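From the shared-data thread, chain only:
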Amino acid sequence: MTQTAGDAPASEQAEAAAATAEPAPAAKPAATNLLSRVLAWRTTPAILTWTCFAAFVANIGIIVTGGAVRLTDSGLGCPTWPTCTDGSLVPTSRLGAYGVVEFTNRMLTFAVSVAVGAAIIACMRWHPRRAVLNKLSWTLFVGVVVQAVIGGISVRTHLAPIWVSLHMLVSMGMVALSYVLWVRNREPHDAAPTPTVQPVLRTLGYVLTASVGALLIAGTIVTGSGPHSGAKAGDPGHKRFPLSPANATQLHADLVFLVVGLTVALWFALKATGASPRILNTVRDLFLLLMAQGVIGYVQYFTHLPVLLVGIHMFGAAIVWAATWRVLLAMRERKAEAGAESEGGTESETGAEVATGAEPALA
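Structure, as tokens:
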């Protein structure tokens, strides 16, 4: 009896259908899919703002931990660089707590690097790309490298005060740079800003900023001529600036009076010209921070420089520096054009508001 196609076993029919069917497209390797997703990823407004803010906080944090190293006399806890000792990357038991403190501060450099690296990635993956954000974030990376080199030189020169002071000042520069990056990422575009005050007041803002910078330099001279060299007894790191601590402190105090006077003058000048409350508030906040710093400074001087107060004073110096740039940046603005929308929504919906509120405030 002849068997027709319809009478063929089901297995044979399935094989025939499979033979005539078009082959399924080959699945892309998992690595290729992951790479495609990475290349297609774009920064959200919230991620951009938070990564820039994290870089700002990290650069203030490294000042605090660096101060802790100095104030606990752990500056030479790891006597070599980049390794901790000639024969070990990490501190040995012989170095005790001093080695642990110094090595921990070195490791925190990686935390700053991670924060800055995240900001770089977020800025590069922002669409549309903003060249100023890329430049600022990459400059921060260069600052991290420079700081590492200066830190190594400081150790190898047994905490020579000039290198320790430079180490602090570069950190302050990175605080200013990271604060500018945080503010600029919140602005809708990179076109020329519109002044919010008269040109003469803008100039006064520059003078105030330069004066605070000079005050920071004088502060490092005070520390470099005082008792907190960062080295413990028996270490060779007791070199100091050839100035008496009293004279260095007097220079620092004179600059404090200058900065306070300029701040008060700026507030009254802004008030007289009808400046907006937002700008007046930034100057007011700077004045209050200066007053707090002054109180701490005088208390630490008359109590013979207790390490806790000196550490708080160092932290306060970083906050005052950021507050000074806050005043300067408030003297101009970049408004979004009518109907313009940023990536992921209108300007009022960006991650700046989600992350830190409507107006930059110091953490």
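The mean pLDDT is 81.
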